[in-house]
Design goal:
Shape: elongated
Bound molecules: NADP nicotinamide-adenine-dinucleotide phosphate
Number of helices: 7
Radius of gyration: 21 Å
CATH class of the largest domain: Alpha Beta
Strand content: 25-35%
């Protein structure tokens, strides 16, 4: 029987691991299919407090990992596929093995949706990203494009106008899904050029492997063309990594877990942190904050069990 198992090794999971380990709970962290989470796929993180010159996402994650290990956290690569909350403990299936724990912290994160085109994985971080806040400032005075028509696409496009020479907003329909206020802001901004009824069918990279252009297809006319852009920002939504918990914990219709008091689930002993329960902020620092809350709640829960 473990005392604390933490599912996920992104910013939320690692922060929970640092706190739980410092509280002598000897946590076991299960690193899933994307160890290190979304930060491990970004470049320079300039908005995490404490690093005035920024820090590379993978380095930040590595530091958190070391910090958790220093206090006694243990790590194992395993994908959680099932979950059974019981009265006095929790069972989770990691790869093919059922593990038992007194407390569970779910920090399984969310994954940005991408288009599933050729070379996509190779280009992430080389002119392909899903985070304007993270990467926008690297693309000054060059044309970029945003894919999507929702609030995220609108927000990212507006943010990117601070840096880019031009922002093409490529949407598969002829109407924004975004709220009117956001759409109006997009239309009022001269730097943003919407390209309607259009999908990206190919990423085109230069000889150094950096994004150079995209191939576009108009879905109404079938017309194809190439558009020069230095970076593609994909904003077609996120999917929370919460399938193993579906139906067993409260979740919204898209699968984001619902926490009360920051990190508590409806099941005693099961706590929630990070992007798996955050469809709004999705920042490293907010994930770290709820990771801390989840570990402190778990510690309190375990000490009450012992009384
Ligand atoms: P969203 O509202 O689901 O919009 C996703 C957009 O991507 C849609 O326009 C969709 O097209 C498009 N899309 C989806 N799959 C695609 C594909 N395979 N190829 C091309 N386009 C694709 O997601 P979101 O913008 O991330 O917003 C999620 C939630 O967060 C929303 O409730 C939103 O209001 C909220 N949010 C709010 C703010 C804000 O208020 N400032 C900011 C960000 C997010 P269709 O329109 O054709 O479906």
């Amino acid at each position: 029987m473990e005392k604390v198992i933490i599912v996920g090794s992104g910013c939320a999971g690692l922060t929970a691991a640092i706190y739980a380990a410092r509280a002598n709970l000897n946590p076991l962290v299960l690193e899933g299919p994307q160890p290190g989470g979304q930060l491990s796929t970004t470049t320079l993180v300039e908005n995490y407090p404490g690093f005035p010159d920024g820090i590379d996402g993978p380095q930040l994650i590595l530091n958190m990992h070391k910090q958790a290990e220093k206090f006694g956290a243990r790590f194992s690569y395993a994908e959680v596929t099932d979950f059974e909350p019981r009265n006095s403990h929790v069972r989770i299936k990691a790869d093919d093995e059922w593990l038992e724990t007194e407390a569970l912290i779910i920090a399984s994160g969310a994954s940005a949706r991408y288009l599933d085109l050729e070379n996509e994985e190779k280009l992430i971080g080389h002119g392909l990203t899903s985070c304007a806040t993270c990467d926008g400032a690297f693309y000054r005075n060059v044309p970029v494009c945003v894919i999507g028509g929702g609030d995220s696409a609108a927000e990212e496009s507006l943010f990117l106008t601070r840096f880019a020479s031009k922002v093409y907003l490529i949407h598969r329909r002829d109407k924004m899904r975004a709220s009117k206020i956001m759409a109006d802001r997009v239309f009022a901004n001269k730097k943003i050029e919407p390209i309607w009824n259009t999908v990206v069918t190919k990423y085109i990279s230069d000889e150094k492997g950096e994004m150079r252009a995209v191939r576009l297809r108009n879905v109404k006319t079938g017309e194809e063309r190439e558009l020069e852009v230095a970076c593609v920002f994909v904003a077609i939504g996120h999917d929370p990594n919460t399938k193993p918990f579906a139906g067993k914990l409260d979740a919204d219709p898209e699968g984001y877990l619902i926490a009360k008091n920051l990190a508590e689930s409806k099941h005693p002993g099961v706590f929630i942190a990070g992007d798996a329960a955050d469809r709004i902020y999705r920042q490293a620092v907010t994930a770290a904050g709820t990771g801390c809350a989840a570990a402190m709640d778990a510690e309190r829960y375990l000490s009450e069990l012992e009384r």
